[in-house]
């Protein structure tokens, strides 16, 4: 499948941006907003190393699951900012999940915006690293 021109252009710009800044590609990391907002499966599914995240250009980590397998001390190492913003994971949604999600999403959005205003790229992750978690945090 060929990417639409705007997607190809954005991806090309992202590659140039990170090549210019000296960042390396990281397996399983994808950028929703190049240089600002990325997604990846959580370390409970696919282990990661802090130095790999930082080399890929990640400055802040935002788990939207319960932070499974994230060591907050490791994630708050020099050069990284960490905040866990857990969302309900019940399927089907349980009564009250909508209120929890609205509250958590507003806080996740504020955190992401604040980090981006400081020129920090945010990695949002859940257990599976699906686009839905990223879209929720950026909407």
Order of strands in the sheet with most strands: 1-2-5-3-4
Low-confidence stretches: 1-5, 7-20, 131-135
| Overall average pLDDT | 76
Largest sheet: 5 strands, mixed
Number of domains: 1
Number of strands: 5
Fourth CATH level, the homologous superfamily? Protein tyrosine phosphatase superfamily
Distance separating the two termini: 27 Å
- If you consult CATH, what is the topology? Protein-Tyrosine Phosphatase, Chain A
Helix content: 40-55%
At CATH level 2, the architecture is: Alpha-Beta Complex
The total count of helices amounts to 5
CATH level 1 class label: Alpha Beta
Secondary-structure class: alpha/beta
What form results from the Cα inertia axes? globular
Radius of gyration computed on alpha carbons: 15 Å
* H and E order: HEEHEHEHEH
Question: How much β-strand is present in the residues?
Answer: 5-15%
Explain this structure.
By secondary structure, the chain is α/β, with parallel strands linked by helices. It has one domain (5-138): Alpha-Beta Complex (Protein-Tyrosine Phosphatase, Chain A). It contains 5 helices and 5 strands, in the order H-E-E-H-E-H-E-H-E-H. It has helices at residues 5-21, 50-55, 72-75, 97-117, 131-138, and strands at residues 30-33, 37-39, 60-63, 81-82, 122-125. A 5-stranded mixed β-sheet has the order 1-2-5-3-4, with helices on one face. Helix 3 links the parallel strand 3 (60-63) and strand 4 (81-82). The longest helix is centred in the last third of the chain and has 21 residues, at 97-117. It is globular and about 45 Å long. The two termini are 27 Å apart.
